[in-house]
Amino acid sequence: MKQWGPSTSAIHSGVEVDASTGAIIQPIHMSSVYVQPEPGEFKYDYGRSMNPDFYPLEAALAALEHADHATVVSSGVGAMSCLLGLLDEGARIVMPTDVYGGTYRLFQRIFAQVGIRIEQIDMTDLDLVDKALRGGSHTTILYAESPTNPLLFVYDLREISIIAKRYGAISVLDSTFASPIFQNGISLGFDVVLHSCSKYLGGHSDIVAGCLMTNNLEIKQKLDFTRTSMGLHSDPFTMFLLRRSLKTLPLRMARHQSNAMILAEYLEGHRMVRRVLYPGLKSHPQHHIAVRQMHGFSGMMSVEFDVDTSAVSKLIAGFRLFTLAESLGGVESLVEQPALMTHMKIPANIRKAHGLADALVRFSVGIEDAEDLVDDLDRALSALSPSKID
Ligand SMILES: *Cc1c(COP(=O)(O)O)cnc(C)c1O
Q: Under a CB-based contact definition with an 8 Å cutoff, are residues 65 and 6 in contact?
């Protein structure tokens, strides 16, 4: 059967009319426990391991990512925690220098504490990827994030997945910034794709959830087993909201991206801006790779303003529509300063070595009217600049 397009999948995949009532919207099963007609005879037993709400949602998530299987979990970090079930003694994780702060904390503080070796490399350099994976005798996870948070690096995912395959590493991609609408890591050769569903997939800043997708049944079973064993499940109401949100994902993503493109071009031309990091701009160092492997450039960008570090917070305080908050991917525009907020968990010297300036400002561009967003930036920047007579 021909695969549905993303907008059709977003609405129809996994959806079945409720047989007992005819309800077109699937009910929420809040029950934590299920009756067994005979001891050990059941379809569902207990809410930590199985719930009828998991499956329709997982079917939709898998369809959107063009994957065979999906596992829905408690959060994006919960999805990474699930990877523990794929590792054994002496295992390694090779990941980029620029990653989400919570990923750094989980791997470098918790996984490393139980003996998993963590290596961070510059993944724009494929020779370094090859060197890091070559010759390891233990299980290795090649963990990529692209585009990265917050520096918007774009890695050559097809080439990286080929190198991982060559050395028998399990390749995992955090595709949160792109969403399944703009990037499909399984089609690019990755074994596992994960998302923080708290971001674009949820899209309304009202849930915390995560998911992992794969075409490999053995990996899917291990992830499910780990979810149950470690208590990483999602709750029924969150799953309901997530399934509801997915219906508008393609529409929302199109608007996030068109707004972001307008703002990126506006900011790039502004005299108070040093550089704009947005994969959709021709000036982005990996723009050519982004064009090849993404279907769009999403709504995240980071900006270095040509102002004193001390003036950055004043600038942010001047925004009316860009609210100062962590997180991203919701309908409302947000702004944050990674070095002081999301990435504060990374020691200052390491942030500096990786190119994350204290003055860097990250924007999650929402789906408001682009004109209003440009006006907001324009007004705040003008208020900051000393009056100039041209
Ligand atoms: C937010 C985020 C995560 C973590 O997701 P949670 O749902 O907050 O646990 C992982 N990766 C990226 C790129 C993120 O932005």
A: no
